[in-house]
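Thread: Newbie trying to understand structure tokens

Hi all, I'm a second-year student working on a class project, and my supervisor (Dr. K.) asked me to get a predicted structure for one chain before our next meeting. I've only ever worked with sequences, so writing a 3D structure as a token string is new to me. If someone could post the tokens and maybe explain what I'm looking at, I'd be very grateful. Here's the chain:
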Amino acid sequence: MRAWEVRRPGPIGTGPLRSVERPVPRPGPGEVRVRVLACGVCRTDLHLAEGDLAPRRPGTVPGHEVVGVVEERGAGALRFAVGDRIGIAWLRGTCGRCRWCRSGRENLCPGAVFTGWDADGGYAEHAIVPDTYAYRLPPGLGDAEVAPLLCAGIVGYRALRRAELPPGGRLGIYGFGASAHVVAQVAIAQGAVVHVLTRSERARALALELGAASAGAADAAPPEPLDSAVLFAPAGELVPVALRALDRGGTLAVAGIHLSDVPRLVYADELFREKQLRSVTANTRADGDEFLRLAGALGVRPTVSVRPLAEADRVLADLAADRITGAAVLVP
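---
Reply by user tm_fold:
Sure, no problem. This is what the structure looks like when written as tokens:
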């Protein structure tokens, strides 16, 4: 099968991805193999390729927003039938025994493993997943449309919950890529007033098209104080900017797996009056199930740019250069 692997992490211009031919994998006990129909391109894939996210194994196939059709089941994998369309997401396995797993916080499991980091992902024609960590997908969405929901959507939804947006509240979104443009749709559909702050003029235009109340530069002040904010851009210098934009008692959630260094915070300006700063770590399967049901009910529709799998290296280069509006999706 055709696949892409991270050959040698480094700047995307140095060619860290390599196109290879591999044998079609066989599922083990409790696993299913899917024929990949689409795989969303996530900024985490770029972090892995460039080395911001340290590789956990050599030659990993990136990609963790995978839509595929079950074509073979391993022993005991009875949750899905051959021919079912399912989704493969970032969280791939947890121990099920630690205090985090037992308390419904499996995203914090010290033994958690992840698709496209600990195991091969969806930048390939076939992929393997434990069936207990795969998702049933909402009807009515095409393969390319549903793919970004499997990480950009799920993890973005967890970030929105971590930001504790009150009903009808004022939400600031910093950065407006794949995850942010999905979260904006959810928040607006639920009655929030959304202000988008991003450096991309094309992303600002998309934000307004999707119903944002305003769209300005990333370091600008929103037109009103915010109840909550989510930082999607991997830019630590925006943390104090977003904290200053919060109203009293507001919460900022940082959604990325990688963030550049945060500058010194001035307590009186940026944290006083019970403002909160929170991080977001992956997601639980319950988050994924809840979000996918909600996305189907609210009619969330990602803006996607479909590209052939053969162009995976160029797509990551476009992502690094902010040439992608919405989400990019690879199709074998």
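A couple of things are worth pointing out once you decode it. The longest strand covers residues 31-40. The longest helix spans residues 285-298. Feel free to ask follow-ups in this thread.
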